[in-house]
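dumping the sequnces here before i forget
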Amino acid sequence: MINEAQKRQLALNLHSIGALKFGEFTLKSGIVSPMYLDLRLFISYPKVLKSVAKLYAQQLANLQYDRLAGVAYAALPIAGAISLELDQPWIFMRKEGLKKEYGLQKAREGSYKKGETVVMIEDLVTRATSRLEAIPAIEDHGLVVKDAVVLLD
Amino acid sequence: MINEAQKRQLALNLHSIGALKFGEFTLKSGIVSPMYLDLRLFISYPKVLKSVAKLYAQQLANLQYDRLAGVAYAALPIAGAISLELDQPWIFMRKEGLKKEYGLQKAREGSYKKGETVVMIEDLVTRATSRLEAIPAIEDHGLVVKDAVVLLD
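..and the predicted 3d for all of it:
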């Protein structure tokens, strides 16, 4: 678990690079949130990304899983950084992979075996709609989504 | 520069995970190549990806640039790993960003200023066609593509 001091430091880091914004934001799910986390900025600040990866790693420490999973595009740099931090393999779902008409065999990248369990790497718990789209797409490949880890909830 | 011993070790590592295949492969450019490098497997082998990132880092050591650049999807995990290795920011071009009809403002991820120089992170020099597609898309954003670094040529 992330402790209070870590949360404060994280919020300061994210705010300093402009990734954490306060205000009134209507999320994809329709929920109005008092803050917005723009993960897209992480790739411009590798040091911040590395510290974020370490926080996710802490949360992943007590989970059992075969692979990490990220959904394109925003989660990819984060999932990649966590994978390097933990030396754990990951897979990713292409954006097109979330649409039924797209050939499933091309929907994901990374090798895996059927029945393996994955943990989804996500940004905010409020992105629940995105997750509801992604889970069936991942499970269509024979993988089992066991957990989802978010940075802030 | 990568020396001969490093090249041999790299080839062994890549071959052992099935990422480097020998045979006859017709590339996107129409060129028939005696080998094929499947970058998609890297995300399943974080240790190999880290060693590959170190080799790219060596090649980048003497170049002057503002950001690294990768084109979706194959180059993203590599560019991300190099960024963390070197503590250098990167940007990426979405796959849709290579198509003219797609809104340019959404074509790339990561912050940058106009006039900044980028180095493209690529897999093989033989992927020249992909590069020719990507360079105008990147330069349309006001960035200057100064160099391209490949793992094997």
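The longest strand of chain A covers residues 144-152.
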